[in-house]
Amino acid sequence: MTEHEPLDRAPLRTLLMGVARLSRRAWSADLEPYGLSPHLARAMSVIAHAGGAGIRAAELAEALRVSPRSATEVVDALDERGLAQRAPDPTDRRAKVISLTAKGIDLHEQIAESRRNRDDALFDGLDDGERRRLADLLRKVLEHNETR
What we know:
Layout: H1 12-31, H2 38-49, H3 57-64, H4 68-80, E1 84-89, E2 92-100, H5 102-122, H6 128-146
Antiparallel strand pairs: 1-2
Helix pairs in contact: 1-5, 2-4, 2-5, 3-4
């Protein structure tokens, strides 16, 4: 990982952070042509996975782990780019729901495809069984620590 820490002796944390850094750099590079930050792309993904009914700003803030004010700024940025829109919540006219526009859906799909290709390249050195084992182990670590 560094000149002082050969890979064969690096602690697990260092190895994991190294892979995360590689992934973040690649993700940022993939988003650059679209003029999006990873934060905006993540918000688009959350909104897309909320389905056609949309998502309230408070739910978006919770999913992104940001303040409601920050979520509003994210939605404003997506709205200014024509990628998301606000509409009255059909169950509560005082509230608004956020959904992706057709342009936003198309861009989200392009970005998702690019991410899948990049992930395939990142983990190209692992066979299918190794990828499954790695995914299982990382899920186990996450699940164990979510209960703390």
